[in-house]
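Journal club side-thread
Mid-discussion, someone asked how the predicted structure for our own chain would compare to the paper's figures. Pasting it here so we can look after the session.
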Amino acid sequence: MQAFESWVLDLKDFYFTGDDYSYRIEIEAKRRFLQLLKGWFNSGVKYKGKVWNWDSLIQVKTQELASFLLAKSGTIGLVEPVPDLMRSDSREMRERILKLTQREAQGLGIGRSTLHYLHKNATDEHQFKVYAKVRKRLDL
């Protein structure tokens, strides 16, 4: 969903093949999607008091599963950690940012350059991240 919402993928990137009644994806679209996926796998997640990359954590979880299947471990924990699938750039947040004046931002403790980049990102259709400190100040 993130790939479509951020315009990494679009419907025009897919084409129908009549010979086997399936849809295919253009090569360049595959590259863009894999780049997005790579970025997601390299993002950090907290687990057991440390910050892990998802690709490393998947390897750890695979090893835990193997230990369980080989009866080297009596338990398996595949519930934790849970990926955060919430977007940080919702429509409400974009509207809040675009309505924010310099004076209001200053009152919230948001600097001019931060406000500039928030406005710039909010007008773009691509996904962007709002850091927790700024998000808290925006009261979102």
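Post-session note: Residues 1-41 form one domain.
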